[in-house]
Amino acid sequence: MSFAFLLFVLVLFPYGPLFPWSPIHPGYESIHLQRADVIYPAGWRLPEPYYKIDSLIAEAEQFHRLAMPHRLTVIASRSWEDFHRFVPHLRGHGVAAVTLLPGRVIYVTPRIGEKGLNITEFLRHELSHAALNQNQSIWNGYKMTQQGWISEGLAVSFGQQTAYLSRSEFLSRARVEDLGGVIGHKGAGDIRFAYVLWRYFLEDLVKTHGRDEFQRFLTAYINDPDHFREIFHREYGMEVSTAAAEFQARVRRMPD
User: Fold this and answer.
1) 117 and 160 inside one domain
2) Considering the domain boundaries, does residue 141 fall inside one?
3) Nearest to residue 15, comparing CAs of 31, 3, 30, 27?
4) Which among 9, 98, 138, 229 would be 20 to 30 A from 118, CA to CA?
């Protein structure tokens, strides 16, 4: 192994994509909780929600009915420059937080502070992804991410998020737009609307068909994302499109 290559590999740890696994974190400090390590900028006053990650993990396990057996590393990025070095496949400044496969590392970006977003909402959102990812293979996690609608709908639901659209804003659009083109698909156009739609659709499934039924669907789905339509039909006795049409009819009768 050449010296140059060895040096390159070593740099990947404290300054690149291997940062979470590096024994040193230049410019950062850390706290060690029972179930998670939090790495944050040196000299930074760590916001209170980060100290509550253990309890949020327990809530995520209860909500998803899935154990999270692996310890988490949560990294609050000091700057966009740092984040893009740590996660080079994500560019731009549009991401607030992201969970890396296989669900053991969560990054929080400067967007949280720039936009005044609720940290707890986004920690909960990412813990939802981590809960699913820790119970599936990396390949199935990747395929699930490419579909988006189930994992993001669950994450927005568990996150109890208000960062995208208010309920009244959602209803005003959902009453006049065709929801079938968004439910069951990765989504196009306004992703903020899609995220909220997927949340309410999944919550409606639980309300109308029961939590146990949804859990059977979810458990089968995370281990075979390619066949989600067949799994949905098997568990619910109807196509996703039919469920979407029924949901749309109910949405149009909802009061503000």
Assistant:
1) no
2) no
3) 27
4) 138
